[in-house]
Each structure stands twice: as C-alpha cells, then as structure tokens.
Design brief:
There is one protein chain. By secondary structure, this protein is mainly alpha-helical. The chain has one domain (7-113): Rossmann fold, CATH 3.40.50. Helices cover 45% and strands 9% of the residues. A three-stranded mixed β-sheet has the order 1-2-3. A hairpin with a 4-residue loop joins strand 2 and strand 3 (90-92). The two termini are 29 Å apart.
Amino acid sequence: MGERVPQHVQNLVIRDYCERQGLHYLLSATEYAMESCHLMLEQVLDGLAQIDGIVAYSMFQLPEIATVRERIYSSLLKSGKTFHFAVESLRMSSMAERDRIETLWRIKQILPLCPQTIA
C-alpha cells in the first residue's frame, strides 16, 4: 500500500509483539521488495503444518486483491492457525476476526477516494 519500513524495524516490532503476546518467535521470512510479490508468504503458507501461525508486521502487507487475501484467510482458518498483525495488534483465528480485518482493509482502500475538505 505504498509504505516501506526497514526490515530491521519490522523485526523489532514483530519480536516485541511476540514477547508481549507470549508467542514463540522462530524466524523472520523476508518478502522480496517487488510490487505485488508474495512469494515468501506463499512459502510460509505451504509450511503451515509445521508452525502454530504467522505474525506479520502489518495487515496492510497482505495482497491488495481481495480474492487473494481471501484465499490466504481461508488457508489459515481451515488449518486452525492464527494470523497476527503486530502494528495493528490484531489477530485472526475466526471468521468474525477475519471480517473485522477485511473491513479495515476496505476502509484503508477507500480513504484516498474520500473528499479531503468540507465545503
């Protein structure tokens, strides 16, 4: 969504979140810095059977295309895993939490189209 945060800062935020939530931090999978690239996320999703869940720096690092996000949500929910988002301090392990995250996504996407001033 046009925002960049250095990897070392993202790692600090994720480690701090894990510590506060009592989660065991294994390692960080670093995504390639190409637009619309989610190769590392796909690899982590392929290995869900070996982990308890995923902690991302921000929910806005998810793919911008809703159908792609839905496939990710579905994969995690079907496997009974939890998806955490450190910056927003949110987690997704149920359809209700998925709906809340998707609502926040839609708000973020539509904000640039809203009027900036009141006449």
